[in-house]
């Protein structure tokens, strides 16, 4: 366990008017700080959070652009909506007074209302849908996750819910809401104070003129409030981005654990590599009895060569240095494989050719001379 010790201080001597130094040890356990989330989130942590639907997104930005899109659409097609509703109401009231109230007449009334509703409300709804999807895509990109919708038993815990109610995030959201209400309320009050003189004139004006003036006032008020909300939404977006970044921060222990999970424990990886080397060595030693010749230098290097008629060139089936070279020669002697001493060729083969690969063309002549000698020796011994 790591710690830091500090030695310092003085104490007064009882019989002398001078200060004598003393040593005092104060230990700080460094493990207490290991759990602090001070490190930036790794790419894996960010990816896992994104798969769970945990992304930096501001609902204020969505709300502002949806309101702007809806009222801007109403401003563009407001006269069209007014004409359609007026025509339907005139037709309905004129027919209701004279028509018999049967099932067919009631069906026609409701069918006509549905058609008018689709013609007037559908354009606005389509614009809101398109703007909402576009703003969400700009903020978080393409993301489709069911994780936030999955039921969790932890959400039913009243103690945890009470804690979330008085958490830091809830407090921040409360402050944001109060600030937004205060600012928007002030701008509404200022707008109404300026336009208060026009409201009494609506009483004596024609209905159409009153509707036009009221619609104009409402649209101007909405656009002014939306401009204020747009500024607030920009601040909220940067706050959400910062808060999301802070929530994903990791401690040093978290990073170590993630590295072990993704890359594997170094001790386990070392044992796996050691076992792989042992298995590779065993397979290589099993090929030594099948070799035609062992070329040595004679103490430090040993290379086992094998050649068959179907091969384009002799291949190296085993090679080693020092202790491995000695083991190759021992196995060769046990299996009566001819050992030829050639210092230059042994070093060249060991450096230039990997196990399982053929001899390069520049060594053909030297290897051919060795194999020719081996074949003559085998023929003479037989």
UniProtKB/TrEMBL annotation:
Membrane topology note: Multi-pass membrane protein
Major location category of this protein: membrane
SUPFAM superfamilies reported in the protein's UniProt record: EscU C-terminal domain-like
InterPro entries xrefs: FlhB, T3SS_substrate_exporter, T3SS_substrate_exporter_C
Cellular localisation: Cell membrane
Keywords: Bacterial flagellum biogenesis, Bacterial flagellum protein export, Cell membrane, Cell projection, Cilium, Flagellum, Membrane, Protein transport, Transmembrane, Transmembrane helix, Transport
Cellular component aspect of the GO annotation: plasma membrane
GO process annotations (BP): bacterial-type flagellum assembly; protein secretion
Pfam families: Bac_export_2 (PF01312)
Membrane-spanning ranges: 61-82, 174-192, 212-239
Family indicated by similarity: Belongs to the type III secretion exporter family.
Protein name per the record: Flagellar biosynthetic protein FlhB
